[in-house]
Design goal:
Layout lengths: L2 H8 L5 H6 L19 H5 L13 H4 L9 E11 L9 E10 L4 E11 L3 E3 L10 E3 L2 E12 L4 E13 L12 E13 L3 E2 L4 E13 L3 E3 L4 E3 L4 E11 L4 E12 L6 E4 L5 E5 L6 H7 L8 H6 L2 E10 L3 E9 L8 E11 L2 E10 L11 E12 L2
Antiparallel strand pairs: 1-2, 1-21, 2-3, 3-6, 4-5, 6-7, 7-8, 8-10, 9-10, 10-13, 11-12, 13-14, 14-17, 15-16, 17-18, 18-19, 19-20, 20-21
């Protein structure tokens, strides 16, 4: 079993049967696709978004610039997400994050995300499976970020990452080796002061994050190299503060992969187009810039490469939260559409968050009907 077969089996987020019936479907694919999975329950309950929400411990993934506005001096968080739980019980995504404020204007964060594809028995002949070789493919990314306030309302951050993908399956005649690379990112975050209106007051927020800018991930033995999921997130939101106890936050986020569109036709022996793939001769930087105008059907298709998410969070007494969200993707680019629900509870220094996903399309979602869980520990005095 090769790398791509493993990914299709274990990361099958789309209905490939439907895609094969329609040769016009052009899903943008990348290496290490687990980076597109929301690692924490709060953001996943808001429709898988977090670039412009209020700062929390998991800002290292969504928008590191939010750390400059975080309320606590330091904190640690962990989350666990079962994957394809209807089929197997050993595929999961785990995340551990730590942040610390350096002073009133700056902070840093570090995080480790680990994706396990469980145990796989390998062999080339029936006799090999009598005493099969057990392998445990996995991928992980280690991030470190630094955030700095450039003014009282705006901060920017830089991030560096090391990514490792150990998906090549070892056999009795074939050795396995992990592929690794590095990446950088830059982000910004705006948060206004509380603004009074006639019947309520409010806070405006906006953010952007360009992440995973780096060389292609290459598996030397197979001569395979794939684009990293270089990604642009941008969004905005508003907090309706009705009184000292009740706040409703509404946020909207847009997302686009900054990698080439699948534009090279794949044909069968009779010359019929069966699908599309990305061009091989496009570099990383040129791929970022051309990703806005390289879709085969022009500007209309470029717009379809944007996904959007809308979320709402009702907070009572800064201790109980109810959340809901909706995520939408064009049918041409994968057809992911789902509703998310969740809740959060704060007790003393501990935050507990839960989320649940309901698919709104016929496309099978590997996280459907899965309960996701996050736990945060806040240390030190509150800064704001």
């Amino acid at each position: 079993m090769n790398i791509r077969t493993t990914i299709l089996i274990c990361l099958g987020a789309f209905s490939f049967a439907q895609a094969q019936q329609n040769s016009n479907i052009r899903v943008v694919t990348t290496a290490v696709p687990f980076l597109s999975i929301a690692p924490d329950a709060r953001s996943s309950a808001l429709g898988d978004q977090g670039v412009a929400t209020s700062s929390d411990a998991f800002s290292n993934h969504w928008n590191p610039a939010k750390y400059a506005f975080i309320a606590n001096e330091s904190g640690a968080a962990m989350s666990y997400t079962p994957y394809l739980s209807k089929l197997v019980n050993d595929i999961f995504l785990a995340d551990v994050t730590y942040f610390r404020a350096i002073n009133e204007r700056s902070a840093f964060g570090v995080g480790l995300r680990y994706f396990s594809l469980g145990e796989i028995e390998t062999g080339q002949t029936p006799s090999d499976f009598i005493n099969p070789l057990i392998v445990r493919p996995n991928e992980f990314v280690f991030d470190a970020s630094y955030a700095l306030k450039l003014s009282d309302k705006f901060a920017m951050a830089i991030q560096g990452s090391y990514l490792s993908s150990d998906l090549k399956l070892e056999t009795s005649t074939n050795d396995s080796s992990a592929a690794g690379t590095v990446a950088v990112g830059i982000s910004g975050f705006f948060e206004s002061y509380e603004v009074p209106y006639s019947n309520f007051s409010g806070i405006w927020r906006a953010g952007f994050n360009v992440s995973n800018i780096g060389p292609k991930l290459k598996y030397e033995d197979e001569g395979q190299s794939d684009f990293l999921p270089t990604n642009l997130k941008m969004g905005g939101g508003f907090d309706f503060i009705f009184d000292s106890y009740t706040t409703l936050a509404v946020t909207l986020e847009l997302n686009k992969l900054l990698v080439p569109s699948p534009s090279v036709p794949i044909t069968d022996t009779e010359g019929n187009i069966t699908g599309y793939r990305q061009p091989d001769d496009v570099g990383v930087l040129s791929g970022i810039f051309t990703s806005f105008n390289d879709a085969p059907d022009g500007f209309s298709e470029e717009l379809k490469e944007f996904t959007w998410a809308l979320g709402a969070e009702l907070m009572y007494d800064e201790s109980i939260a109810l959340r809901a969200g909706y995520f939408n993707e064009s049918e041409l680019k994968g057809a992911r559409k789902y509703i998310t629900l969740g809740a959060g509870f704060k007790y003393n220094v501990i935050d507990i968050d839960l989320s649940y996903l309901i698919s709104a399309t016929k496309v099978i979602n590997p996280l459907e009907n899965t309960l996701r869980f996050s736990l945060t520990f806040n240390f030190g005095e509150e800064r704001y």
